Amino acid sequence: MAQPLVHLRPAAPPRGAIFDMDGLLVDTEPVHAAAYALAFREAGLHLDPEEYRRHVTLAGGTIRDLYRACGGTPDGWDRVFARKCERFRQVIAAEVALLPGVTALLAALARRGTPCLLATGSSRFNADVVLGRFGLGRHFPLVLTGDDVRRAKPDPEVFYRAAAALGLDPGECVSFEDSPKGVRAAAEAGVPCVAVPTAWTRGGDFTGAALVLDSLGEVTPALLESLWIAGREL
Q1: Which pTM value belongs to this model?
Q2: Alpha carbon distance 214, 53 (integer Å)
Q3: Which of 51, 74, 84, 127 is the most exposed place for a label (fewest CB within 10 A)?
């Protein structure tokens, strides 16, 4: 059910939509954690998935930091990362589905002529794997990944870049995020954000979100319109 956290609401109906990927379109956060844990283990290291959740998913830290903290050496990273990517591709191909509401929301935005951009902290490799696996490329002609920015979420850089790529001001967009770091980044950039927490992020601090929903299936053009009306009345 929608939980309004009145903080940053759009001043007009959104003209562009910015989507996160992991945990929002597909439930890949546990897949990333498990794939890294496997790659670490094969390198003689131990990665606690819960530590990955806290440090990377929630706080916006880097896996390289965890690799070093676990005793990894610089010359071993490329092998660990390659093994992780291999495992990630295998699992995505066989075991992962789109989360509820994704297809319907993207179709509704397409009917309205609202351009969509994917803004993910994942690598270009991961984005290409997910977009290719689920045929989402037609919905996201514009894609920004962690490879395209210097500072990851919760830094707002990716949202400034996303709005510019859409040819819009940040406040003319609406964003969809599943994590506190994503909500914070959007809010700092001035992009109204609809948060959809997952099991991995539920219980986090979503202050700054315009709405907190249980599923993208709750998002409709009418809901976004009502969000605009509420913002206009603040």
Answers
A1: 0.86
A2: 20
A3: 74
